[in-house]
Amino acid sequence: MTVISSEKDVNALTLTFVAEFAAPVDRVWQVWADPRKLERWWGPPTWPATFDRYEFKPGGDVRYHMTGPDGTKAGGWWAITAVEEPHRLEFDDGFADDNGDPVDPSDITHCVVTLEATGSGARMTTVSTFRSAEQLERMAEMGMEEGMRQAMGQIDAILAA
Amino acid sequence: MVVGADDVFHALADATRRDILTRVIRSGQSVSELARAYPMSFAAVQKHVAVLERAALVSKTRRGREQIVHGEVEPLRRMTRLLDGYEALWRQRAAGIEQILEEDEQ
Questions:
Q1: Which of A14, A86, B62, B79 meets the CB 3.0–4.6 Å disulfide criterion with A29?
Q2: Which residues form the HTH arsR-type domain (chain B) (predicted)?
Q3: Owning domain of residue B33
């Protein structure tokens, strides 16, 4: 896997992330289409995701939860807006309450995923557009937590050497 | 005053406000100077400036009878840090996808 680019636009509140994989487009599509595969990578490493409902089609309803290190559950939902196998997927992602229902249906991050064949595999581009700072803050904290853990691990390794 | 990230989001969600911010980060401008740059009333521009001010994205100083609007970069840096964290998450996700692609091949 190679991260080709990662562009942050503070004004438009988007992150465009491009990575390439040494696998054909169809197989990369499967990590999105198959919820059992998806839940192995969607949550940050310390917040694994479980997909409780997964209707992988336009207009489809998705419910999931992530479980934190102390057992805290963070619920999420998607409203899938486009599925064009195996090249394009679009969905709105938001927070869900304990019943799995949207906390605020307008508080979403829109995500557009495109997959293209390259000479040696597949290129995946994800464009995330934020409408809410809370969502970004929460996800960023979950991501950063793991980043911090890794950094601490590296410091430990340096100190132990 | 505590400025929430949502104030910054709301302030940046409008194209005119983004444009105003870009101008005043380059150099301070009076509200009347800004008002001349847009096809809208002085009051409308003043309103946009007020939204930016609430989000602490701009500050005002007095120059005689005029109020000069200056851009503040710290809230933008904070947003950049948030996006950095989100980028870190996507790097982890891409690494996770790679692992699945490798494992499932075996």
A1: A86
A2: 1-91
A3: 1-72
